[in-house]
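New to this. Please check this protein:
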Amino acid sequence: MLLYGLLGFAAGLPFYMFSTVLALRLQAHGVALTMLGFFAWVQLLPTLKFVWAPLLDRYDIPGFGRFWGKRRGWIMLAQLGIFSAMIAMAATSADASLPVTALFAVLLAFWTTTLEVAADAWRIELYPSQDQQGPIVAANLWGYRSAMVAAGSGALIIADSGGWALAYLMIAAAAFLPFPILVAMRPDADGGGGRGVALATGLLTSVVILAAACAVTAAIGWVVLGLAAQAGIDANSNVTPWVLGICMLPFVGMALALPRIRRAPKNAPIRTSTVLGPYVDFFWRYGFAAILLMVFVSLYRMGDVLALNLSKPMIKGLGYSLTQIGRADSFVALVASMIGVGLGGYLVTRWRMAWTLVVGAIVAAIGNFGFVWLAHQRVDEGILYIATACDQFGNGFAGAVFVVYLSLLVNPRYPGAQYAFLTGFAFLLPRLLAGAGGAMVAVIGYDGFFLLSGVLSLAAILFIPALSRIAPRKED
């Protein structure tokens, strides 16, 4: 539990730095609200982690993997990636070039996600049952949410007095602290060779991988931005209809592919493929019920994701300072989140999963409705504390329950890939819509936006009776 608290802390620190903190930084530099919404699409990287998750199941990092094992090797590489990306974001904190800012934000999101994939796969391998998952998930989320609060509140308070560059440098240093701890840990049971040689080899390999990832990301970004410019997409564009259309494509694709997948024999190429096999296995086991599962997981955390990127700019617009927001995101958010995570992790060991999912959806929706209430109150730090506490308690409770639920859907033969797929898809629709959040606020206002996000979270409850009757197909 201590180890998974540490891993959660290492993954949570950078998350706010490419989401909420970045949104406030861009707002301070005069970036338009619609463009702030576009930057929420950086958070799509975690939803696409199934693309590279099979690589983490199959390959080791030279040096790191031989001495510390496959999972820890990838975690160490990811921490180096997180550290280098945050240093780069500190160096470009003036946001003189938004494409450059986006490049390093994407890299930060990529390496943060890679760290989560490796840690999640290890967790599912070590703790496969519901009773075991509850406590370990709570420990992991305690660390994760503690780090998010530390990064969110600490970065804002530092930025208010010392500037954005200092804020990113301080969080980068804190995020790197687990690396020497991992280096000092005992080697993997199958590891061999000296620690120094393994570390040197791993560091050299990491430099090459980090440079290659930066070059590939820059090339892809150049192409994407060029295509967007040709399509006439700018800060004044209303992209919501297009985003909603894109959101429907995965469901249509799954429906078309399911008949063939269900008929595929055990030795079929699509089931034995290293790249596709883990994902095909999920649909082979659940059949058409997989579409219902995908709709549910897309809706369950909808409110939390939609609120994440625009809640802080809204609060700042109400007249609160960065320091006041930072204080609310420190002790108040930490305690509320810890209580929510702990209660959710405890109840999944005592209640039926369906009941805990229902309660999680309700408290998450209340947190979103709290922002509507906050917008109509006078500017008072105590009132801000109440709204923040409701939001963070709901996020913590629903997050703990949701992680356990998704973990139980996974086939233990493919823990890394399938969990990455489920969590990635769970946040695909919400994060696509979050990118259009600025345009939505321009049409329906902040009140309508947060009311809508809360109602969408509640809508997930309608699926729970049907979900409780779904059972996976037996292995052939």
User: Anything to note?
Assistant: Residues 195-230 form the longest helix (36 residues). The chain has a mean pLDDT of 82.
